[in-house]
Amino acid sequence: MKIIYSKKFEQNYCTNPVENPDRVKLPAQELQAFEFLESEPASLEDIWRVHGKEHVENVKYQGLFEAASLAAGGAILAAEKALEDEPTFALIRPPGHHASANRSWGLCFFNNMAIAVQRIRPKAKRVLIVDIDLHFGDGTVSIFRGDSEVKIINPGCIDADFEYLNLNANGYMKQVENAFKGFDFDIVGVSAGFDTYIEDWGKVLKTEDYRKIGRIIHDFSQRCGGKRFAILEGGYNQDLRYNIESFIEGFE
Ligand SMILES: [Zn+2]
């Protein structure tokens, strides 16, 4: 198990006070026992596989290109290592799952997961994305719409209109298990948001539930030789570090 990180993620680029450097800095301290790999920026070619040139220019104009491309590069490294049978967790920011090809919102600029998936597609044809963030990953869904070889599951969400099932932790866990039914996949990518946490906006999952979710994904990923990676999306409570650690305990 490797952690993908860079000290550069600790820069304060001030998009919104909730999406602050401590979101990665504190988990990085908590995870010191693991080996860290340095995130490198994604290339423009990697980004253009997913995003329109105008959108890329817009991110540059906002002064966020450096931060956003570094996060996307971290996701790419996580996916590539997973293909080499090394499970990974990319401790990256800004998050990405609300970014679609030509638009971004919700603290996201480039879709880190989609950029990573498109980069590894030649080697991994069928990809299962499990998005455990509280919010519906509308950007990722829109990018892969019509692509029958990428399946995306957002447990807890009914649809893009942000209706949520009134789930308890067990119901949520069942939906994570259901994600693995009826689809053969070559790799599993997890959009790992932690805002469904009981003390965060979602108010459902406890810290130990993230270990169980990590373990469910670990177990089902054995169907594709254990090829699995996770990248950080949301999660805004100060306990984020413990929730990430708990997820990794199950996932590794
Ligand atoms: Zn979220």
Helix-strand blueprint:
Blueprint: E1 2-5, H1 22-30, E2 35-38, H2 44-48, H3 53-61, H4 65-83, E3 88-90, H5 112-120, E4 127-131, H6 138-143, E5 150-153, E6 157-159, E7 163-164, H7 169-178, E8 187-192, H8 207-220, E9 228-232, H9 240-251
Parallel strand pairs: 1-2, 1-3, 3-9, 4-5, 4-8, 8-9
Antiparallel strand pairs: 6-7
Helix pairs in contact: 1-9, 4-5, 7-8, 8-9
The protein binds zinc ion (ZN).
Zinc ion binds at residues 133-135, 193, 195, 234.
Written overview of the protein:
This protein has 9 helices and 9 strands. The protein has 252 residues and is an alpha/beta fold. It has a single domain (2-251), classed as Histone deacetylase domain (Arginase, Chain A, 3-Layer(aba) Sandwich). The strands form 2 sheets. The protein has a 7-stranded parallel β-sheet with strand order 2-1-3-9-8-4-5, with helices on one face. It has a two-stranded antiparallel ribbon with strand order 6-7. Strand 1, helix 1 (22-30) and strand 2 (35-38) form a beta-alpha-beta unit. Helix 4 crosses helix 5. The longest helix has 19 residues, at 65-83. The chain is globular. The N and C termini lie close together (6 Å). Residues 133-135, 193, 195, 234 line the site of zinc ion.
Number of strands: 9
Helix content: 25-40%
| CATH secondary-structure class | Alpha Beta
Q: What oligomeric assembly is this protein in?
A: single chain
Bound molecules: zinc ion
What average pLDDT do the residues reach?
94
Number of helices: 9
- Across the major sheet, the strand order is 2-1-3-9-8-4-5
Number of domains: 1
Tell me the overall shape: globular
Task: Sketch the topology as an H/E string, one letter per element.
Answer: EHEHHHEHEHEEEHEHEH
What is the CA-atom radius of gyration, in angstroms? Answer: 16 Å
